[in-house]
Backbone:
């Protein structure tokens, strides 16, 4: 079955409009009075999500097999130090990712 380019463009357009609507809808609904539970979640969820991502990323690290978690430890330390220094997520996370990949591919081969 062949899908026509027009059908593909219509599908992409519908997905784009739906995504934009879902992103902007909360701002339209809570323009004047944001309920307290929503404000609370806005303060708490970013920290909970970051904590969950750290646990997820480090869950498979083996401390008893070589390289004993050293690439992960070094990369996490770099992310923390860079973020404390620059306060910029767009610097700290890519730097930690690049550091981790270099350590895995070059240093701890």
Residues:
């Amino acid at each position: 079955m062949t899908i026509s380019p027009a059908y593909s463009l219509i599908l992409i357009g519908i997905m784009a409009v739906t995504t934009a609507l879902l992103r902007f809808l909360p701002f339209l609904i809570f323009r004047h009075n944001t309920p307290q539970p929503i404000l609370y979640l806005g303060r708490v969820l970013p920290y909970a999500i970051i904590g969950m991502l750290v646990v997820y990323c480090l869950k498979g690290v083996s401390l008893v097999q070589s390289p004993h978690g050293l690439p992960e430890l070094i990369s996490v330390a770099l992310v923390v130090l860079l973020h404390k220094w620059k306060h910029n997520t767009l610097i700290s996370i890519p730097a930690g990712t690049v550091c981790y990949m270099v350590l895995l591919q070059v240093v701890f081969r």
User: Anything to note?
Assistant: Residues 5-29 form the longest helix (25 residues).
